[in-house]
Amino acid sequence: MASTQLSSELQELSSTTEIVTFNYAELDSETRAAIQQNTTEIKSLMRRTSQDIIHIGQKLRAVKQQLEHGHFRKWLKAEFDWSVSASTKFIQVRNSLNV
Length: 99
Prior knowledge:
This protein is 75% helix and 0% strand. By secondary structure, it is an all-alpha fold.
């Protein structure tokens, strides 16, 4: 599933062990301000995406527990055109973090 792969890639991108710095002083003030603003927004989006994946997993788990056997699959297909295995990946991310 693309969302689970995205979550893994985001975690991998944000957990590099090598510390690298970028010298913003080399940029003119207008470019520096624009780059720093984009950097802040990208970091916020990365956190939000991970949080969204966790929240989706929580919601899917709750719905699965509330529906009778067999209805979850039909609900997933009708509402999202997802398979059970696709939803399971969201739930697994949620469960792996013990949220």
